[in-house]
Predict the 3D structure of the following.
Amino acid sequence: MNPPRVQLPTPEDIHNAFIRGEEAVTELFISVIDTVRMLLSHTDQLREQLAKNSADSSKPPSGDGLKKKPRTGSLRKPGEKPDGGQPGHKGHYPEMADTPDRIVVHTVRTCGNCHASLKKATVIGHDRRQVSDIPPIRPEITGHRIDILRCPKCGHHNKAEFPKEVSQPTQYGAGVKSHAVYFNVYHHIPLKRTALISEHISDHRISEAAIAEACGICASEVAPANEHIRKQLIMSDAVNSDETGIGVNKKLHWLTVASSPEFTCYHPNLPVTIFIPSAAGKVSVMPVSCRNFTVSESVTIGKHISDSPADTDFAMPTI
């Protein structure tokens, strides 16, 4: 919406109207009123436009911004069944292990009937219960030393080599990096909170720069899989494309997706794909880039084009 052109009277215009008399002043004042009414109408139109979102207009989800939408109360009537698992539902619980890692024996010292000592009593049976828990996580520090040997024949000093993956005096291992990438990428946890999780769980905080570097290494490791997905999407009979708004570094970006029933590719901050019908049963597709995935040619129309991206699993390689 283009802003209206506004021309307010200057002090000279006001003075001239005053000199000409009451009729000129009234005319000038009416023109100012008309200008104010036009500005108020324009302001109402802008407010109405800003109040719209992707749910009640043709605006894309990316135009909703980062503000949270008001929650709509459920219209469903409360059911007659009680909350929780229903009769006949199989619950999920830890299975009893045949060989526990640790056994704690609890005994009784006196008889519950006559209060006699049971110190020399014979054990006639056992009852058992098990608790599945995670032991405290502590970093395992592996020291690497290389030998320096002097040749007994010529006296030359021969130094062994460190493993290729041990390139710094101190560094994080594959386990620390894999967990950091898992939390940050798969569960969409920010760098700072990922570092805090590491500190709270293992009492050892990994730096945000190290997490970002580990994500870069993981990205290079999954590059062959991304290339395979890219080729499969290009070969698909129909490719769905959609976008939604996401926050990246406190700024609004577009998360663009290209998908088929078997493969899905995501990438932020990219233009929306537009399908333009053409002859010969084909659809022209505007360029869409998703992690080195580009569709720039027409694709054959399939039976349908899905309205939502296909589900995809995440496989994280060992770094």
